[in-house]
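Sequence design from tokenized structure. All designs in this work follow the same two-part layout: the structure record, then the generated sequence. An example of the structure record is given first.
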């Protein structure tokens, strides 16, 4: 082995083990063990001159040490050069996760520490668990930092907008591997999906991410085994996933409400909700029952009441229609069991509800259309449940969904509107980053966006933006401030997101829609 290559590997391992020691991922007794695991992962055989304890001690004593991203990059670059790792991002991610798995505490240790901290307080437990996810590189913070985020003030208050760049695009080999597996058919894969608890410690493959660094906290919800983990892509602070031990499809039911309240009872500083259980209005993974939560106040939680309402027999439950672009019933009370009982009545009523005057049909040819997106949180000592009414019916005019982003908004958002966006946080496609940058260049140059292929889909919208902001029209744009235009484009995207949510309202906020909403509420009890 050449001198320079051996230096890269041995120095990188020493730096990585030193990092793990400093972050409390391992103890002094683990240094040699961890270094040897990394040597095996990297397919590298050192000489007897390499003494892990001495190398790590020297790394810790150094005046400066590279950041984690740089340490891993140097080891991966060397592995690619030596033919140990393919250059594609999927292959590199498999290897760097294996390296970090060498210094991530065992699951039993994590679970034990979590519940010891929980005895101090639920917040202490989640603080420990979240920082472990960060320190172990399960959440790649250096990728998260590249996400574009901003806040837009709308008629409904401040809405959060993000263009998420932390989830890497699949490389060609990963795409080919997934396609080949689809063609071959046969037995179902292992793990069956990315949410199955069998992912714990899984080395991954080109079409399935490595999970040596994932850790799961066992929970009991409604008498059944569930787990708590964090999302590796962190759309918001402490973005967690609560998943069933069983690989069963998503289902919204009375038990769903019970589980959500039990969760916020255990972790009162977290919000938790479920995607709907039907295509179009559901999330991206409907095959494995799971919820999403975190330590974050979403815009919907800050929304006030549009109208106070009541349900017969539930005088102890405060109810209101939320002032929100979508159709939301909010329930508040001290007794979660009473909220569950009323929520179940609302769900049952909505499953079978039809109002052709506003395009709501419970089913067509036996296919159900109505469901609910529920979100639970605590309000001091009280419990709160938001029930977002959803309908996934399609027509020739709206083939992607009547209550789905409409065609004129697809240039910004075409994808399903799931739980996170329902609550007021837009997760926009990565393509927008380049398209918006290019659109700003086109506007500043006084060109017509319709004549530029990269941004022609945005041309009708851009024309409307320029009407509202004539200072950037072609005849006025000379000398315009690029930063000011950038702020305008971000704000206008946020306004489009508000329109997207309005499209998803089964009862529009107009005279006809409010009357229809009132008819539904009146028929619940």
């Amino acid at each position: 082995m050449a001198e320079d290559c051996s230096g890269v590997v041995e120095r990188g391992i020493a730096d990585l083990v030193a990092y793990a020691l400093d972050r409390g991922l391992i103890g002094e007794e683990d240094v040699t063990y961890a270094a040897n695991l990394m040597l095996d992962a990297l397919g590298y055989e050192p000489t007897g001159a390499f003494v892990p304890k001495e190398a790590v001690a020297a790394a810790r004593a150094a005046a400066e040490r590279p950041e984690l991203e740089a340490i891993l990059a140097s080891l991966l670059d060397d592995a690619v050069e030596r033919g140990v790792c393919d250059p594609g991002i999927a292959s590199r991610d498999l290897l760097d996760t294996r390296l970090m798995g060498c210094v991530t505490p065992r699951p039993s240790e994590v679970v034990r520490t979590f519940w010891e901290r929980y005895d101090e307080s639920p917040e202490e437990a989640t603080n420990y668990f979240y920082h472990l996810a960060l320190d172990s590189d399960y959440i790649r913070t250096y990728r998260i930092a590249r996400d574009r985020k901003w806040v837009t003030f709308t008629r409904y208050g401040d809405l959060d907008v993000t263009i998420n760049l932390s989830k890497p695009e699949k490389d060609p080999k990963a795409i080919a591997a997934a396609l080949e597996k689809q063609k071959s058919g046969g037995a179902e894969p292992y793990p069956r999906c990315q949410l199955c608890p069998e992912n714990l410690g899984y080395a991954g493959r080109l079409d399935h991410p490595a999970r040596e660094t994932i850790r799961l906290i066992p929970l009991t919800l409604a008498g059944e085994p569930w787990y708590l983990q964090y999302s590796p892509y962190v759309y918001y602070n402490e973005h967690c996933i609560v998943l069933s031990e069983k690989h069963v499809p998503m289902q919204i039911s009375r038990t769903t409400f019970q589980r959500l309240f039990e969760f916020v009872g255990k972790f009162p500083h977290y919000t938790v909700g479920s995607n709907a259980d039907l295509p179009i209005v559901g999330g991206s993974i409907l095959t494995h029952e799971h919820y999403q939560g975190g330590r974050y106040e979403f815009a919907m939680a800050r929304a006030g009441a549009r109208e106070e309402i009541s349900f017969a027999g539930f005088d102890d439950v405060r109810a209101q229609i939320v002032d929100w672009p979508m159709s939301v019933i909010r329930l508040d009370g001290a007794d979660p069991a009473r909220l569950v009982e009323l929520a179940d009545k609302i769900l049952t009523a909505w499953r079978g509800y039809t109002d052709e005057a506003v395009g709501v049909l419970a089913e067509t040819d036996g296919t159900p259309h109505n469901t609910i997106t529920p979100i639970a949180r605590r309000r001091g000592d009280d419990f709160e449940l938001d029930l977002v009414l959803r309908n996934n019916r399609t027509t020739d005019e709206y083939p992607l969904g009547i209550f789905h982003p409409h065609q004129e908004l697809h240039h910004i958002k075409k994808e399903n509107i799931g739980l996170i966006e329902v609550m007021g946080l837009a997760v926009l496609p990565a393509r927008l980053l380049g398209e918006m940058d290019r659109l700003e260049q086109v506007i500043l140059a006084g060109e017509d966006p319709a004549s530029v292929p990269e941004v022609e889909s945005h041309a009708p919208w851009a024309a409307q933006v320029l009407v509202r902001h004539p200072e950037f029209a072609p005849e006025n744009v000379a000398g315009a401030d690029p930063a000011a235009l950038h702020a305008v484009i971000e704000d206008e995207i946020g306004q489009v997101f508000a329109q997207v949510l309005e499209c998803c309202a089964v009862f529009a906020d107009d005279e006809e829609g409010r009357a229809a909403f009132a008819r539904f509420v009146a028929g619940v009890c």
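The mean pLDDT is 95. We note this feature because it recurs in several other targets discussed in the main text.
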